[in-house]
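in:
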């Protein structure tokens, strides 16, 4: 039976609806994660107060979307709170006050602010299917969408008010429109590419990487097709100008009630550590100019991100703790936190590509034609090389979420190579064709079923997904922590477990964005790694994996803080592990 275009579209819709449904169902018992504590109140303050003093290190668009449902809840926002009035970027204290201590409906706020983030998954899924369909046809576009829809990592992070999935969508969609403009350089396509670029800059500051990336693609395109350099460079400048015009109104709206003198003061303080003083002085000068102050705030955030990336974060990896990066961090995290079946598909695709390359006879002629024919795929490979290179070289190792922008391109590239394998088998000799195609279909079916099962089996603990190479989620804490495993999402589950066990008191060392008192109430007793072990005798002790692992590790070279404060716990076995991220002990 021939599958029609409508049926393929219907199957695509079903896959996306599945992803949305599983995302919503799996956040029912997830408490507030670390970054959400800053992003939710920041977004609300932008939209409701028109004031951008909180969380300037991230652009506003995604936080704005998360705040839209909150605008209909008649929430209390305390503008007399000292962290709002006096602190420089007092995002954490304002977040705690707004979400947990203002009489607002905490659970309702958290749930509804996450819904727009889940809708971004829908948008990204649509574009993955749309672009893959243009390149590969309906059948293999559906394969790319299948890999996306069952992705444990996208489901995990697509449910939270963070910037990572939005950044992945922005990279992908902006690249789609830019490549479309290169292939068909009409005014309409130029405008769409410019708007997509501008919206990308409003999603996350890492999207600034699009400027050199697009510039490189343009250069390759002009060389391949011998285009007029000056003309296309002028068009490229116009495209960037359109994008930066898109930035203006949103930033301008968000600084309407942000006092200019306060913006100058905040900017000066935040940029104190900026090593490029002429740039810092320029941004500060712009901060109180009526037209320029919106761009001043944009460049302030961009500068903050560059500073943070250079500075790094304290994190745990393979038994070590460090405040600087490991070059092997992202490759290893990618291998253990993506489904093993996906890695096998990628290996098959790479082996087939390697087998085909020696068959090229006339390199000068065939490579040129190949570049023309597969320019979209080439642009994806270039993006992977640039983004992976920047990520590995960077100094921020806190989660696989930071390489999420590479995933959609990987899905399409794998699907494209699988299509070419099937096309090759269809051209095989008759006696080999049937057997080859049958074997390929069986292998592909097994890998896809395995892929779906591995995703469904981790429900609802998607953030803690690890593949079979390391024994699954129960062993993830031995390799990495932070947003790979433990972002504070299981505090509500800990409270529920304590209620079920009839526990009256429990000491908690919690890593995350939630208020422990809010969930545990009188049961909660504060605990930290530097407390004396004997004070835990006769008590229940719950410790987040991030703190536990940092206290049972060895310091990396140059790290001079204590990393042995929880070694005494190795003589005890946890009585339970909540959601794979909070370890509970009874200290007898």
């Amino acid at each position: 039976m021939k599958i029609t275009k409508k049926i393929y579209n219907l199957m695509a819709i079903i896959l996306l609806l599945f992803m949305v449904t599983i995302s919503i169902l799996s956040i029912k018992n997830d408490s507030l994660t670390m970054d959400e504590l800053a992003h939710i109140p920041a977004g609300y303050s932008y939209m409701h107060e028109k004031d951008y003093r909180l969380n300037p290190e991230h652009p506003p668009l995604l936080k704005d979307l998360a705040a839209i449902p909150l605008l209909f809840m008649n929430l209390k926002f305390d503008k007399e709170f000292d962290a709002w009035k006096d602190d420089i970027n007092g995002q954490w204290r304002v977040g705690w006050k707004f979400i947990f201590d203002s009489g607002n409906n905490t659970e309702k706020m958290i749930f509804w602010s996450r819904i727009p983030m889940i809708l971004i998954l829908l948008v990204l899924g649509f574009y993955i299917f749309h672009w893959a369909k243009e390149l590969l046809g309906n059948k293999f576009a559906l394969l790319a969408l299948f890999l996306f829809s069952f992705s444990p990592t996208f489901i995990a992070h697509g449910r939270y008010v963070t910037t990572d999935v939005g950044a992945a969508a922005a990279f992908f969609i902006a690249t789609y429109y830019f490549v479309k403009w290169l292939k068909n350089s009409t005014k309409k396509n130029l405008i769409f590419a410019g708007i997509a670029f501008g919206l990308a800059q409003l999603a996350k500051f890492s999207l600034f990487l699009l400027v050199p990336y697009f510039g490189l693609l343009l250069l390759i395109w002009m060389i391949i097709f011998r285009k007029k350099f000056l003309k296309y460079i002028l068009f490229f400048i116009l495209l960037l100008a359109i994008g930066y015009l898109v930035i203006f109104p949103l930033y301008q709206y968000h600084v309407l009630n942000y006092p200019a003198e306060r913006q100058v003061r905040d900017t000066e303080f935040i940029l104190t550590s900026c090593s490029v003083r002429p740039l810092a002085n320029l941004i500060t000068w712009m901060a109180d100019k009526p037209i320029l102050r919106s761009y001043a705030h944009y460049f302030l955030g961009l500068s903050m991100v560059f500073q943070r990336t250079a500075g790094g974060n304290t994190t745990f990896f393979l038994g070590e703790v460090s405040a600087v990066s490991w070059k092997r961090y992202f490759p290893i995290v990618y291998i253990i936190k993506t489904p093993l079946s996906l890695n096998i598909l990628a290996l098959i695709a790479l082996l087939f590509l390697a087998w085909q390359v020696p068959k090229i006879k006339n390199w000068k002629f065939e490579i040129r034609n190949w570049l023309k024919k597969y320019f979209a795929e080439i642009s994806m490979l270039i993006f992977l090389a640039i983004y992976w290179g920047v990520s590995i070289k960077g100094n921020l190792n806190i989660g696989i979420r930071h390489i999420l922008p590479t995933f959609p391109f990987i899905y399409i590239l794998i699907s494209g190579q699988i299509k070419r394998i099937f096309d090759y088998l269809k051209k095989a000799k008759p006696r080999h064709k049937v057997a080859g195609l049958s074997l390929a279909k069986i292998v592909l079916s097994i890998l896809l079923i395995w892929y779906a099962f591995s995703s469904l089996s981790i429900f609802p603990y998607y953030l803690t997904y690890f593949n079979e190479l390391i024994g699954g989620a129960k062993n993830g804490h031995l390799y990495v922590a932070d947003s790979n495993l433990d972002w504070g999402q299981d505090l509500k589950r800990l409270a529920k477990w304590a209620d079920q066990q009839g526990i009256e008191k429990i000491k908690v060392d919690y890593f995350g964005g939630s208020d422990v008192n809010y969930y545990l109430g009188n049961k909660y007793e504060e605990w930290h790694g530097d407390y004396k072990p004997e004070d835990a005798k006769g008590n229940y002790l719950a410790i987040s994996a991030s703190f536990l692992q940092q206290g049972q590790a060895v310091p990396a070279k140059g790290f001079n803080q204590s990393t042995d404060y929880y070694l005494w716990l190795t003589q005890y076995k946890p009585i339970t592990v909540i959601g794979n991220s909070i370890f509970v002990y009874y200290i007898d």
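note: The mean pLDDT is 94.
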